[in-house]
Every structure is written in C-alpha cells, then in structure tokens.
C-alpha cells in the first residue's frame, strides 16, 4: 500500500477486524435498497400510465446508473475496511483510512477530552464496536470503527489514562 508520503516512518499499523466488512455490507444493502426503490417509483408510475413525464428512457436510466454506482461501491468495501488502521505512540494516537483520498490523523493524548465507545445493532452480534475520540478541536476528533469489543474497551481505558496523565502534566 503506497502511502509513504503521508505515513510517518517505522509505524506498525493495527488493523480493524475483517468482520467490519459485514457491517459495511449491511449498511450498503439497506441504503441502496431504499435508494433503488425510491428512484424506481417514477419508472413504475410511467409504466402504469399515471405519469407521462419523465420519458421512459430517463425513468429506466436513473435507477440503472444508481445500481451501477452501488455495485462499484460494493466492490470497494473490503479494500476500504483494510485501509483503516491505528497506531499508539508515546505521545499520540495515529488513525488512518482511505483508498483514493487517504488521511492520517494524529491525535495528541493531551488534547483528548473523552473517549466514547458505540455499538450498533449490526456490530453487536459480531462482537465489534466503534471507538470515538473527542478532542478540544472538532478537526482532530477521530473514530476507529470495526474494533473487536475487547480491544475497544482496552483502547478506551488506555487512551483515557494517557489523556489524563498528559492533562495533569500541563
């Protein structure tokens, strides 16, 4: 993965659980099902003769184009999940993500205000959670989705302790 331009040298990235692909697929399926149904309503109305506009070709093209884009996003999901990583250093936490638009975020422990863990209905049966870091600046807030629940709890305690230690030293 050629990200040397934005990655600090010598970092061993920890990856999120591969089970997170399942969470992303469930989100993808639900979102696209709703979108295709809504975008197909004009087609149904045109075929039933209730509408004369839009033309038939447009009523077919809009959901078809959406479906093509949805399939393209589906193909990218496993790669997007593999791109998410984090690394704990002595003074900060690094969080990275992205394929086309890569981002590496550095969150200093001393700027952390609180660490939050969230578990959604799809994550819960898979034993996953999302760790959210809230800092003094909204621009340095970060989240690490797809963590195993045990790792999320460990990381929450570790980061909270490091954040308190850094704040006490100020």
Polypeptide structure, described:
It holds the Pfam family bPH_2. It comes from Arthrobacter humicola. Keywords: Membrane, Transmembrane, Transmembrane helix. This is YdbS-like PH domain-containing protein. Helices cover 47% and strands 24% of the residues. It is an alpha+beta fold and 170 residues long. It folds into two domains: 20-80; 84-168, Roll (PH-domain like), CATH 2.30.29. Strands 1-2-3-4 form a four-stranded antiparallel β-sheet. Strands 5-6-7 form a three-stranded antiparallel β-sheet. It starts with 13 loop residues before the first strand and ends with a helix.
Average pLDDT figure? 92
- Estimate percent helicity: 40-55%
Biggest sheet, spatial arrangement of strands:
1-2-3-4
CATH topology of the largest domain: PH-domain like
Number of domains: 2
Task: Count the E strands.
Answer: 7
Spatial separation of the terminal alpha carbons: 38 Å
Radius of gyration: 21 Å
SSE arrangement:
Blueprint: E1 14-15, H1 20-47, H2 56-83, E2 85-88, E3 92-97, E4 103-108, E5 112-118, H3 123-126, E6 128-135, E7 142-148, H4 149-168
Antiparallel strand pairs: 1-2, 2-3, 3-4, 5-6, 6-7
Helix pairs in contact: 1-2
């Amino acid at each position: 993965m050629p990200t040397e331009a934005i990655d600090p040298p010598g970092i061993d990235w920890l990856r999120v659980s591969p089970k997170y692909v399942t969470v992303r697929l469930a989100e993808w399926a639900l979102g696209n099902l709703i979108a295709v149904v809504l975008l197909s309503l004009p087609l149904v109305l045109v075929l039933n003769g209730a509408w004369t506009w839009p033309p038939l070709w447009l009523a077919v093209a809009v959901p078809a184009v959406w479906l093509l884009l949805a399939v393209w996003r589906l193909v990218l999901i496993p790669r997007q999940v593999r791109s998410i990583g984090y690394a704990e250093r002595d003074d900060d936490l690094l969080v990275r993500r992205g394929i086309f638009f890569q981002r590496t975020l550095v969150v200093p422990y001393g700027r952390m205000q609180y660490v939050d863990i969230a578990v959604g209905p799809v994550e819960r049966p898979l034993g996953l959670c999302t760790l959210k870091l809230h800092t003094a600046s909204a621009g340095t807030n970060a989240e690490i989705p797809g963590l195993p629940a045990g790792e999320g709890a460990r990381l929450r305690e570790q980061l909270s302790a490091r954040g308190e230690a850094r704040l006490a030293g100020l």
